[in-house]
Design goal:
Structural class: alpha+beta
Number of strands: 34
Largest sheet: 11 strands, mixed
Radius of gyration: 26 Å
Low-confidence stretches: 1-30, 32-57, 340-351
Shape: globular
């Protein structure tokens, strides 16, 4: 039985994963009171006075270690608790990470859940918040485990965003950390910490909750170190949306620890010096003795000297230290010319990011155009490239557009964009089919490039309008899940769960591909014949006979499904999702060729476009990182390397894999945005009305880029 449960326990609000639990203990240690993250070497405190260094970087909710005891029925004082099923809790002595007491939680059975939420703490917008809790588990195999989430509230105490992560490890009889990270949206005034223990889990002790606030620093691909005959050049490309900016006081570059000593000088511990130049939004700030990166502007720091990157890797790690906020930012650096030069070993062009104001104007103009496409039923009238003269309310385009409005709302003051996001979410909820699926509003089939086999269709050679499709269902379900994360409306989570139930348990849902149930796939549409039975590709399709010659193994579907499945697992903790996710990921990773390319499907073997491959590789990477499966991660990164070398014109410039694959996304972002803005029409659209789905996609992409650039 694959169906996901959704009961009263979903009132626990959650959000997108931003950190993996693999580093949770490390993060918890960083949040300890004596942590000096930006001062890994002696002498830093002498360079910056105590008044320069924030002393309140670590925040503790009231009664964070439960030393004040409990107020009622096991709930710690100054916390709010929710109990489902047979869960119970009380503050106990005898087992504690620090002090004398810890919270002892019992969740013996499946469906049991205990949730506690802190009082609201003052918070600031456009910062990075990190929350962590120590926990010790005993007995039982974990299902869901412990989760930590951050809830961001405006001045009216209204939820406007959240972030979650979940323990994925086995039950442990030693203290380990669970941690989450998330960026606070515009309008944030308070932050709360919410901790959930789900059963069957036995007994769990919780202790030592901490929260940390720091600036946000975006490090773009294109950061590199180049070997020269007399000196090396370290080029760092960064941006920040944080209003106060980021103050770079130290650069730890491959074993060389440098301190900013003046407007052009860096000093090493033994008195050696290097020089630096700044550009864009970076400048030397004499009052703090740091390089200040101003908000919303691309910035460059170029250091000249001799470096020794880590042998054997093309992407060594350097660290930028901010002594004002007491944080350190790791950055991946592309190493050039540290091996014998070849004709292929050439540095990409370094480009500044485009002007934020120009992108904002473009996005807002497009939003005004989309305003004219609204329908009386709460959606938008969408023209598809296949049906340019037949505009309809297209669930997939409306889902993408809704996600764009949510991105835009995160960085915008006022509620105009949030109102549009909620409009889209309400439309998706009200237009979801009873079985949880979504379909296109147009009839389509062989005439629009789909399968030409008549037996594939119920009648004629078309799918009827509204017939369920996996790609549309995934898009709508993902948007609904994002809506729940942002606004806490459980109807949106319920819709996302119904969509996943259809994808896994519907009549055309998840299918096993082998008798041992190790590989799986989600069909594009149905299980009817895709090709004529005499086609030699059918004989070569090595899967179970029940799914041979069907619409399984279309790899962008499985990649998109993995992204959705991973996000929903982090939200719900339902381990049944992992069985099917593992099967999809195992099969998808096996389809990435040694070159890094991936075919469209089992029946179309040629390497597909970069835009298509991006969906498959992104889903595989996100899921594989969550599961800690290095082989799957390696397959996804091999795919991104193929994109960077052979499908660069199809890259959608996102930062997600820049630090992992060393792609020069600074240049790609500039080229992408410059070309896009050049194509925008006077009415604000990109399509002129003939393909409004493209306008929806552009709105989502540009809104996401704008948020990354500072909003």
């Amino acid at each position: 039985m694959r169906r996901l449960a959704l009961g009263a326990t979903v009132l626990v609000l959650a959000v997108s994963t931003v950190t993996s639990c693999a580093d949770a203990t490390s993060l918890q240690r960083q949040l300890a009171p004596d942590a000096r993250e930006a001062a890994p070497r002696s002498g830093l405190s002498a360079r910056w006075s105590e008044r320069d260094v924030r002393s309140d970087a670590a925040m503790q909710p009231v009664n964070a270690s439960f030393e004040d005891g409990e107020s009622r029925s096991g709930c710690p004082r100054r916390w709010t608790c929710e109990v489902s099923g047979g869960a119970s809790a009380h503050v106990a002595t005898g087992v504690a990470k620090g002090g004398d007491r810890a919270l002892k939680v019992a969740v013996p059975d499946s469906g049991d859940r205990f949730t506690l939420r802190s009082t609201a703490m003052p918070a600031l917008p456009r910062r990075r918040y990190e929350a962590a809790v120590w926990r010790l588990s005993e007995g039982g195999r974990p299902q869901g485990g412990e989760s930590v989430r951050l809830r961001f509230l405006d001045r009216s105490r209204r939820l406007i965003g959240s972030g979650i992560d979940r323990d994925l490890g086995p039950a442990s009889r030693r203290w380990t950390g669970v941690a989450a990270k998330a960026n606070s949206p515009a309008g944030t005034a308070y932050v709360e910490v919410e901790i959930t223990v789900a059963g069957p889990r036995g007994t769990v002790w919780l202790d030592g909750v901490k929260v940390r606030e720091r600036p946000i620093l975006q490090v773009w691909g294109g950061t590199s170190v180049r070997r020269g005959p007399d000196a090396d050049t370290l080029s760092i490309h960064v941006a920040t949306p944080t209003p106060g900016g980021v103050h770079v006081g130290t650069i730890d570059a491959f074993g060389t620890y440098l301190t900013v000593a003046g407007p052009r000088t860096l000093v090493a511990p033994r008195g050696a010096t290097m020089t630096y130049e700044v550009g864009g939004g970076a400048r030397y700030e004499a009052s703090t003795g740091t390089i200040r990166v101003s908000p919303g502007q691309a910035a460059t720091i170029q250091v000249t000297g001799r470096f020794t990157p880590t042998p054997g890797t093309g992407y060594p790690i350097a660290k930028l230290g901010d002594p004002i906020a007491q944080v350190e930012y790791p950055i991946y650096v592309v190493a050039w010319n540290y091996r014998p030069r070849s004709k292929d070993n050439q540095s990409p062009d370094i480009a500044m990011l485009p002007a934020r104001a120009a992108v904002r104007r473009s996005v807002d103009r497009l939003a005004r155009y989309l305003e004219s496409r609204k329908t009386s039923s709460g959606g938008w009238s969408i023209a598809h490239p296949y049906w340019p003269g037949q505009p309809q309310e297209d669930p997939q385009a409306i889902a993408v557009l809704t996600q764009g409005f949510m991105k835009r709302a995160q960085a915008s003051r006022g509620g105009a964009y949030e109102a549009q996001a909620r409009r889209g979410l309400e439309w998706l909820v009200s237009h979801q089919r009873p079985d949880g699926s979504f379909g296109l509003p147009w009839a389509f089939g062989s005439s629009s490039g789909h399968f030409s086999t008549p037996a594939h269709y119920r009648s004629g050679t078309t799918h009827v309008a509204g017939e369920p499709l996996a790609v549309v269902t995934i898009a709508a379900g993902s948007a609904l899940l994002d809506g729940f994360k942002a606004y806490g409306n459980t109807r949106y989570l319920a819709g996302a769960v119904r969509a996943m139930n259809y994808l896994l348990d519907g009549p055309n849902g998840f299918q096993w591909l082998d008798a041992r149930h190790t590989r799986g796939s989600i069909p594009y549409c149905n299980l009817k014949p895709a090709l004529p039975s005499t086609d030699p590709r059918v004989r070569a399709h090595h899967v179970l006979s029940a799914v041979k010659n069907t619409s399984v193994e279309i790899y962008n579907i499985d990649g998109a499904a993995l992204s959705f499945l991973k996000a929903l697992y982090v939200e719900t903790g339902d381990e049944r999702l992992l069985r099917y996710g593992d099967a999809i990921a195992r099969n998808l990773a096996s389809k990435v060729r040694p070159s890094g390319s991936i075919p469209y499907s089992w029946y179309e073997r040629s390497p597909h476009s970069g835009g298509y491959a991006h969906i498959a590789f992104t889903g595989l990477l996100e899921y594989a990182q969550m599961r800690g499966q290095e082989r799957w991660v390696a397959a996804a990164l091999r795919g991104f390397s193929w994109m960077g070398n052979h499908a660069r014109s199809d890259l959608v410039p996102t930062e997600g894999y820049a630090s992992l694959s060393g792609l020069n996304l600074s240049a790609d972002v500039t080229a992408y945005v410059t070309n896009a803005l050049r194509k925008q029409r006077t009415d604000g659209s990109f399509s002129g009305g003939t393909a409004t789905r493209y306008d929806a996609v552009m709105f989502a992409i540009l809104s996401d880029l704008l948020l990354t650039m500072g909003g």
